[in-house]
């Protein structure tokens, strides 16, 4: 399937007369509504007005990609606009991002796999300066969607967890001193450690929240604040005393879109990847985001 198959002239706005990203999103939303893609307009409007950070990918100073999965729409649909002047996105504290291209991708939850494929394809397309120049030069909507670049990009195959997981991740054992595990997480800049026994059999997970719960419990039992000494984390306690034993695991063969949806719905930041009960990798939300935007 080519990217051209999801780009339509009646869902393109050239010129897009919007000065802010919120105005642009409103115009693109109206475009989708007018072309029959939306089943529940008020629900979609509410979802877009929330404007969570993870719903927007900023491609440098080239484009804004607003992407939303919601049951308010009937189908996967893309609306794209090219503005004659910069569109501004205010981030607060006087920080402002600018771009002239705004794209909105919406899809129902059941189309998670295709949604990720289309989002990744547009991120790839808009990372090319020459392609962006062609989009900016299009005189109208018909000329925009007729550009050869949309036919040149084929949607990638459905990614599996094994395609982007971290192989040979850092681990701990149940007997690892809790302080050693905490130091390993801090020095490695990681937020969780899979806990394994012999032959890499997964038995639990030690996350930052588990450490915090343990440290907070130790603090509340004492009469004074914890001191920055080697005993700040009780050296006698082991990982088994703090780890979570109920762990959501996935397999390397599972579709990435399915796992991404599961992680969002369960509010899970990272999952061990296992095969026959043995750890073979580790997947985080950050891994998925970096893959989508081509890092």
Description:
The protein is elongated and about 70 Å long. It has two domains: 3-155, Mannitol-specific EII, Chain A (3-Layer(aba) Sandwich); 162-292, Roll (CBS-domain). The protein has helices at residues 21-34, 41-50, 112-125, 129-137, 141-145, 149-152, 161-164, 178-188, 208-221, 256-266, 285-292; strands at 12-13, 56-59, 63-69, 77-92, 95-107, 166-167, 192-196, 202-207, 270-275, 278-284. It contains eleven helices and ten strands. The two termini are 23 Å apart. The strands form three sheets. The chain has a five-stranded mixed β-sheet with strand order 1-4-5-3-2. A three-stranded antiparallel β-sheet has the order 6-10-9. By secondary structure, it is an alpha+beta fold.
Instruction: List SSEs in N-to-C order.
Output: EHHEEEEHHHHHEHEEHHEEH
Average pLDDT score: 87
What is the subunit arrangement here?
single chain
What structural class should be given to the helix and strand makeup? alpha+beta
Unreliable runs: 228-233
Question: Going by CATH, what is the homologous superfamily of the largest domain?
Answer: Mannitol-specific EII, Chain A
Please give the largest β-sheet. Answer: 5 strands, mixed
| Number of H/I helices | 11
């Amino acid at each position: 399937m080519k990217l051209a198959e999801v780009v339509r002239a009646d869902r393109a706005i050239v010129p897009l007369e919007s000065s802010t990203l919120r105005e642009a999103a409103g115009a693109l939303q109206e475009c989708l509504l007018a072309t029959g893609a939306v089943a529940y307009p008020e629900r979609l409007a509410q979802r877009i007005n929330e404007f969570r950070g993870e719903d927007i990918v900023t491609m440098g100073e080239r484009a804004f990609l607003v992407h939303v999965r919601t049951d308010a729409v009937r189908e996967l649909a893309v609306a794209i606009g090219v503005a004659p002047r910069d569109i501004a996105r205010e981030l607060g504290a006087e920080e402002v991002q600018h771009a002239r291209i705004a794209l909105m991708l919406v899809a129902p939850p059941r189309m998670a796999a295709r949604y990720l494929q289309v989002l990744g394809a547009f991120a790839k397309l808009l990372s090319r300066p020459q392609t962006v120049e062609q989009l900016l030069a299009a005189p109208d909507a018909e000329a925009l969607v007729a550009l050869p670049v949309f036919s040149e990009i084929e949607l990638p195959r459905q990614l599996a967890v094994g395609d982007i997981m971290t192989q040979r991740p850092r681990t701990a054992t149940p007997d690892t001193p809790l302080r050693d595990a905490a130091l390993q997480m801090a020095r490695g800049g990681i937020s969780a450690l899979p806990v394994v026994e012999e032959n890499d059999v997964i038995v639990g997970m030690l996350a930052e929240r588990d450490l915090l719960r343990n440290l907070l419990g130790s603090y509340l039992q004492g009469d004074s604040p914890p001191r920055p000494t080697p005993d700040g984390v009780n050296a006698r306690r082991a990982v088994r005393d703090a780890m979570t034993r109920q762990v959501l695991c996935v397999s390397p063969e599972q579709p990435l879109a399915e796992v991404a949806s599961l992680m969002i719905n369960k509010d899970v930041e990272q999952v061990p990847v296992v095969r026959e009960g043995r750890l073979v990798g580790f997947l985080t939300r950050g891994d998925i985001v970096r893959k989508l935007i081509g890092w």
